[in-house]
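Why do we care about 3D structure at all? Because function follows from shape, and shape follows, mostly, from sequence. That is the central idea of this module. The next example makes it concrete: a single protein chain, its amino acid sequence, and then its structure expressed as tokens.
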Amino acid sequence: MDIKTASALRRLRLVSVPEAVSFLLLLVCSVLKRTTEFNAVPVMGAIHGLLFVLYVLFWADAWNRTKWPLKTAAFYFAMSILPAGGFFADKRLKREAEDAVIATRARKEGVVGA
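And the structure:
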């Protein structure tokens, strides 16, 4: 994996958890808006919207650089529209990055089958 691909995956990981947290907070704010006088939906909606746009941009860049199959790309996109999906995306992206590092080291050391 080259440095640009690793950077694209890292950016996607860095925004996936905050995007998931903002989605969950937006849901809480929506409930509070309907049950109390508290209304933080406009603020939380803007924050979540920005993080969602960043997630989609970073997802598109990562897909372009990693050449994921459509199924994998669709999984990561679906994680952006599901509450708490970013947590699952982060976990899987971390594992994918670690596997890529191991494969790169094995190729450098000349291990067969890497």
